[in-house]
Amino acid sequence: MLILAIETSADETAAAVTEGRRVLANVIYSQILLHKKWGGIYPSLAKRAHEEKINWVIEECLIRLLRNQNLLASELASRQKVGPVALRSTSESEGSLRHSLAQTSTRRVNLAALGMNLVDDVAVTQGPGLAVALEVGISKAKELAKKYNKKLIAVNHLEGHIYSCFAQNNKGNPSRDFNFPYLALIVSGGHTEIVLFRNHVDYKVLGETRDDAAGEALDKAAKMLGLGYPGGPVIERLAREVQNEDFHNFPRPMINSKNLDFSFSGLKTSFYYFLKEKPQVINLRELASSFQNAIYDVIVAKINLAIKQTKVNRLVVGGGVIANLYLRRLLRDLLEKHKGEVHFPPFKYLTGDNAAMIGVAAYFKARKKLFSKSQELDRIPRLNL
After folding, report:
1. Helix/strand/coil (H, E, C) string of 40-66?
2. What is the CATH number of the domain that holds 273?
3. Is 203 within a domain?
4. Strand partners, 18
5. Separation between Cα atoms, residue 3 and residue 8, nearest integer Å
6. 94-130 pLDDT tens trace
7. Would you tell me how many other CB atoms lie within 10 Å of the CB of residue 167?
């Protein structure tokens, strides 16, 4: 079963072709540079960028599928020659150049159509996410499903992050088996949740953020420090330079509560007033490290509590924030203490928003015949698991 998956929930335009858990082709167009000046995602810009890139991303993904399946042969070689040769030529007329570029575009479309004929189903992120961004992917998925007579699979973006830990490369590695149940931690720019992953496509939310997500808090702290967007990577780099030490002991909201919910808004406010009242203490490395420690201490404490409450000591972790190596180390240490195991996405691209994880989740939904009718499939910006 080959699935073309499409992801446009936020600021990544992505497409992938998966077979079971194997990722056969994957393309991601990031909009980060478009949103840097705004310090976060600007919805109208995100929508326009998705609309401009969605066709190219899907075509490129399908062409890579053909290449990886050794089905391109001379056709791809011909396509690759036209563009660069024509653009470098100074002797061709303007009309001839336009003709060459048109030929390149036509070949791409034809190759993409050939790739679509190999695909069995089309999967797309239904939510949660930006409404205007989700709409671009859903509209394209409906269009392709109708044109090529494919079944539609709606996928929750959060279940994609959970299944990202079980994705494989095109060789079938890593060959990690499922061993239910798991605790699942989703920690990203828009979400911080703890989920009981009981079986395939079977989830129970145990705790979630009441306000800001962890990634959002990191972005806002970085903006206060003038570090730009996204904030997580630069905060991680600065914290590493001071060995991830805690210098200021910022608040750990809800760390001692008996539930598994999160709240990072108070931490963000405390950080703001600290910077305002003590400008003489501005040391970027120490501030970044201390803020990061406050967030990660809460996350680790909540996972520790979840393990004690559920008696489940197998953890899977997905989302952009988990790219942070210090947080990974903390979670590994915690699970070792509980004589358990923790699994992260096996490849870096799987930590952010991507279509590969959507395709993997879609496979297990397809096995349960959880297909969607085109006329009923609509975006759900606040979709829950």
Report:
1. CCCHHHHHHHHHHHHHHHHHHHHHHHH
2. 3.30.420.40
3. yes
4. 3, 23
5. 16
6. 454 344 445 667 888 888 888 999 999 999 999 999 9
7. 27
